[in-house]
Amino acid sequence: MGRAVAASGVGDGLATVFVHHTSASLVLCENADPTVRSDLDAFLERLVPDGDPLFRHTAEGPDDMPAHVRSILTQSSLQVPVVGGRLDLGTWQGIYLYEHRAAGHSRRVSVTVLGG
Which domain covers residue 99, as residue numbers? Predict the structure, then answer.
């Protein structure tokens, strides 16, 4: 996302990032300690476990519907201020493309930057 902002030539404005999928999401979270990500994974896996018999939508396997629920609980788009041609994130913040399926997939993300 940072490269897209730089390439846009926008000095001050707003960047929007959007993921075009229903089983992946975007997360703005701490990025300094890798245990934050593993803790988030553990929490979402406990909250919405793969193979839960509650779900009937299993066309692509036992992680199909749980991945959709996890993406609903997180976000499909984020807006971040742009200041001085860069994302104006907090010191410890990072943006993650969060895959909710057991096996990775090819994902498409759009970045739109508006401003002057």
Answer: 2-115
* Number of domains, the chain: 1
Cβ atoms of 82 and 115 closer than 8 Å: yes
- This prediction's pTM: 0.92
Q: Running along the chain, 116 residues long, what does each successive block of 10 average in pLDDT?
A: 93 98 97 94 97 96 97 98 97 96 93 96
Tell the burial category of 42 from Cβ atoms under 10 Å away from its Cβ (0-12, 13-18, 19+): exposed
- Which amino acid does the sequence have at 113? V
List Cβ<8 Å contacts ≥24 apart for 104-108: 105/21, 105/23, 105/24, 107/19, 107/20, 107/21, 107/24, 108/19, 108/20, 108/21
Output the domain CATH number for residue 31. Answer: 2.60.120.460
Is the Cβ–Cβ distance between 79 and 14 less than 8 Å? yes
